[in-house]
Amino acid sequence: MNGSVSEKLTQLCGKPLERATDREVYLALLRLVEELAGQRVEPVRGRKLYYISAEFLMGKLLSNNLINLGLYDQVRDCLERTGHRLSDIEELEPEPSLGNGGLGRLAACFLDSLATLNLPGDGIGLRYHCGLFRQKFADGRQTELPDPWLTDEGWAKRTDTVYPVELAGTVYQARLYRLAVTGYNGGTNQLNLFDLDTVDESVITGGIAMDKTCVDKNLTLFLYPDDSDEAGRLLRIYQQYLMVSAGAQLILAECEARGCTLHDLPDYAAIQINDTHPSMVIPELIRLLEQRGIGFDEAVDIVTRTCAYTNHTILAEALETWPRTYLEQVVPQLMPIIQQLDALARTRSDDGTTAIIDDRGGVHMAHMDIHFTHSTNGVAALHTEILKSSELANFYKLYPEKFNNKTNGITFRRWLLACNPRLTGEIESLIGPGFKQGAGQLEGLLPLARDRAVLERLGGIKRANKEDLARWLEEKQGARVDPAAMFSIQSKRLHAYKRQQLNLLYLIHQYFEIQAGHMPPVPLVSIFGAKAAPAYTIAKDIIHALLTLSAVIDETPEVRQWLQIVFVENYNVTAAEKMIPACDLSEQISLASKEASGTGNMKFMLNGAVTLGTMDGANVEIAQRVGEENIYIFGQSSGQVIHRYDAGDYRAREWYDADPNLRRAIDFLTGPEMLARGSAESLGRLRDDLMNSDWFQTLPDFNAYLVRKGQALADYAHDPLGWQSKCLTNIAKAGYFSSDRTIAEYDRDIWHLG
Ligand code: 26Q
């Protein structure tokens, strides 16, 4: 950059920084980043990646961009000299919450790593006007409010590019918005987001409800519009097709501009389909290629060689199957192609289970992906093995060469450098700065696992981060917690398979134990962050139970000194960045076989938390790396769980009847203390579900969870240096979970970019 940061910012502000408002400084910083990011755009040679995803959970971008451009320290110091604080300016930036959880955050981490590795790779998605709903607690329940995040200024820039997209016979104009994605000491890529000019926030009728009839006004208003009725489900198809049709047109236009004849499309483009939400890109590309004079067979071959598919879930109910009548209504132009693809798929196997269109007229998006892409990957070793051996076994038999694993990763720039400057500084002083781009270098910390001075400093850093979190919790929601307590954190989407209810039962158990005079070895602050899908009743019941229990404990002084529950309202990326550096015990307690990978587990590990978890998803690979003395594993194995499902012989009631601790905890849900504050209907429904159904087998793991967690608390209390040594080992072994490694593997095995 010519001139100093302060001269440049002064010029962009049009006045001395001392006299500029924080808002003016913020706008100047936006422009500075844009200008510098623009200078790093390189012309693309060879193959370029398009990562198509319904979600990009980017989080705030200012600090990350400054870090990636190497400007963070200079800007922070310059602002301090002129009476501003970078942290205040960060507050002005709205968080783009264009995602639910793991899958969307993974897409954002991948964009960071692509740019960092100087690989040509852009994102394609939708410019939702409201991100995931804003969660508010009222009367111990979750309520949902819209989360409008667009402002006149912001990262996503309107372009003059529009593509026609035909939906249910009407042609709409999809406008392209572009957001620069900077890499750490690397290049700049783009996130391409599509929107309609006609979308109108005034059709929101209250909360997150809206008039679902006028597609031109509501199409991109919400990420995941409520799909409990048919209009909502149709709207999802409208959204998906807008994304893939505009995206496919963009891809073809860019490739043609670089000299591609379309016959050679796979030499110019690699398309990664992020779960099944963008799967219609397959028939859409075939349609566009046919329109341009390419025959069906060749078009299928071109598309198969260009596209690859990632599966993120084993839950059967999350595998998208659309009634063909919906597709006939919204995208009639695709139906003949989907039918031809189905016919072709049926020639490859007699096995009806691999068909695209089933006997009941359901269109299986994942099946179309596996047949007509060249690669299907799972997101952790265990997940990929389960896909191959059970969920997708029939496909694996058909196409063994297509299946591969790409264990997820996270960007260390956001999840260490930006969110935990204290720890970053300490690591740098111990092993130098190389780990920021070469994550494997963190292993250089291992020889220090017995170094008392280092371990004490690590303990001090964690303590300071916990004090920061405590201050934030008090300011944000009036929760007062003692940083000397152990902080256990379970933050992730609320879902029965993730088993926040197991943690709940533990906390009730502890409530009884403390009242009986059996004190834990150290006070525990149990922190949750989670949003429940608006129509997911049991998930909301779990939130209600936790909030109610939290109030019960707060009003019981003899328990409160030992046990506290804090439920962080509106958990999002910004909240995660405050919580993760302050965690002692990372709760990763899904039912084995159900969590495809998890990525929160990696973020906590990198920030020096010890995992309490099941052998599920990437926990398995974490355990392998840190060794059993540096992780608390408990519970049934995935093999046992799958066996129990196959046998169909799990009866929650038998576990309830057999274990008095379990019975006491479950009955407490509808006991007088809880009913004095909570809803009999909601708590009763949860108790009934746990006793009589418990689809995700919480009860069989309860006792093992109690024992393991008790061990973790005791180790933490009685051997603080030993605990810090576990933390250090976790940090040192986190390098494998850098998304730089994941992206390098995708490139090596699937994309072959540049
Ligand atoms: C499907 C059909 C209809 C409506 C919605 C959906 C739907 C929406 C979102 C299905 C799935 C999702 C999101 C899934 C997700 O976030 N999966 C997570 O992906 C992470 C990244 O790979 C993994 O680490 C997590 O284990 C996985 O749960």
For the sheet with most strands, the description reads: 9 strands, mixed
Low-pLDDT sequence parts: none
Structural domains: how many: 3
Task: Report the top-level CATH class of the largest domain.
Answer: Alpha Beta
Instruction: List how many beta strands DSSP finds.
Output: 21
Lateral arrangement of strands in the main beta sheet = 5-6-7-2-1-10-11-14-15
Share of β-strand residues: 5-15%
For the record, what is the CATH homologous superfamily label of the largest domain?
Glycogen Phosphorylase B
Number of helices: 33
Bound small molecules, which ones? ligand 26Q
Q: What is the CATH topology descriptor of the largest domain? A: Rossmann fold
Task: Describe the protein in words.
- It is globular and about 80 Å long.
- It folds into three domains: 60 residues, no CATH class; 345 residues, Glycogen Phosphorylase B (Rossmann fold, 3-Layer(aba) Sandwich), CATH 3.40.50.2000; 315 residues, Glycogen Phosphorylase B (Rossmann fold).
- The strands form five sheets. A nine-stranded mixed beta sheet has the order 5-6-7-2-1-10-11-14-15. Strands 18-17-16-19-20-21 form a six-stranded parallel beta sheet, with helices on both faces.
- Strand 8 and strand 9 form a beta hairpin.
- It contains 33 helices and 21 strands.
- The model has no long low-confidence stretch (mean pLDDT 96).
- Helix 3 packs across helix 17, helix 6 crosses helix 33 and helix 27 crosses helix 28.
- The two termini are 27 Å apart.
- The chain is an alpha/beta fold.
- It binds ligand 26Q.
